Amino acid sequence: MGRGKIEIKRIENSTNRQVTYSKRRNGIFKKAQELTVLCDAKVSLIMFSSTGKFHEFISPTTSTKKIFDQYQKNLGIDLWSTHYERMQENLRKLREINTKLRREIRQRLGEDLNDLSIDEMRSLEERMDSALKLVRDKKYRLIETKTGTQRKKVKSLEERYGDLLLEFDAIGKCEDPQYGLVENEGDYESAVALANGASNLYAFRLHNGHHPTANLHHGGGFGPHELRLA
């Protein structure tokens, strides 16, 4: 049983359309290669898929430019000159725009104003005022952004400073009074002098089995057997 006849119309499914394009493109390239080998023909085949992909087949003994040159010669037309004329026209327009912009820049700098009429000078003034307003608005936005960033940084530092104060107060409240700050100025100066003059760092510790305030409650101090050097 032979294959059914395929109706020639656009394939709606994009995947099926791409698969069919790939298969038939390879078939056309194969036929073009066979035509080149069997008949010594010069073949140039250019194809674009629906997705914009470019595919090309050129006979090994020629190039696309040679094919186009021969095509123009046989038909008596010049594709390159038409394209060149369009490029020249585009270049002329760009030069006019460039000249106009340069002249306007000089006028904004206070030059080339002698040939301007009152209306032209008034129009130039309005354009300059509009440009100045845009520049000022841009500057103010930048200043506001920078100021807002600085304010956020300052606020963050203030919050951090407050947290540190709270932590410091909490640590001070939780300290054991005997290890707290020295309130007696004379004792503090003696401790500083002892720390500065000592060659080694010592730590005092209490003898095991004695409470640190046991003798203090009786009005006495620490005995020599109750205080040892670690």
In short:
This protein has helices spanning about 15-40, 65-75, 80-110, 120-175, 185-195, 215; strands spanning about 45-50, 55-60, 205, 225-230.
Give the SSE layout.
Blueprint (H helix, E strand, L loop, with lengths): L13 H26 L4 E5 L5 E5 L5 H12 L3 H30 L9 H57 L10 H13 L6 E3 L7 H4 L9 E3 L1
Antiparallel strand pairs: 1-2, 3-4
Subcellular location: Nucleus
Keywords: DNA-binding, Flowering, Nucleus, Transcription, Transcription regulation
GO molecular function: DNA-binding transcription factor activity; protein dimerization activity; RNA polymerase II transcription regulatory region sequence-specific DNA binding
Commentary on this structure:
Among the domains are: 63 residues, Transcription factor, MADS-box (SRF-like, 3-Layer(aba) Sandwich); 38 residues; 56 residues. The chain is built from six helices and four strands; from the N terminus they run H-E-E-H-H-H-H-E-H-E. The strands form two sheets. It has a two-stranded antiparallel sheet with strand order 1-2. Strands 3-4 form a two-stranded antiparallel sheet. A hairpin with a 5-residue loop joins strand 1 and strand 2. The longest helix is centred in the middle third of the chain and has 57 residues. The radius of gyration is 47 Å and the shape is flat. The C terminus is likely disordered. GO terms for molecular function: DNA-binding transcription factor activity; protein dimerization activity; RNA polymerase II transcription regulatory region sequence-specific DNA binding. This is TM6. It comes from Jatropha curcas.
